[in-house]
């Protein structure tokens, strides 16, 4: 279906085999995961470089599907470092964490602060949850406003990860496919 190259951008710890990103990748084998050298001790510059390399290698316009810390890596890359950012047509950023908050996030992710507040140079959709332990909904909505993104209030979905019950996530898949259709049609 997609003419775009879809890159899955996991967060801290990667997305295990039961995570919705892995489920999505199994259902759509053409989707490619951006790999990191160290998923458990993330270094911002390394994660940004891996993302840049993956986008640069793509042969078609790129759609990014990020979760958690992957969302912050996308935002930092897009506004600060990404020489291939023009290849990105759209991004779905799910459950961005507040990496500036010691109350909400573990120390391993604080090196990704500050969260950029500049508009991202591609169509962006942010989906967040009211009961995400890693970011209050108001903070997630603030990220979306700063990034110039559409915001979807997901209700009570936790961190939208395996622990919150999101292995298979048909609603998320519909969001991805809708975004791909919009990109493919030039909308």
Automatic annotation (TrEMBL):
One of its GO terms (molecular function) is hydrolase activity. InterPro entries: AB_hydrolase_fold, RBBP9/YdeN. It comes from the Bacteria. Pfam families: Ser_hydrolase. Keywords: Hydrolase. The keyword Chloroplast does not apply. This is Alpha/beta fold hydrolase.
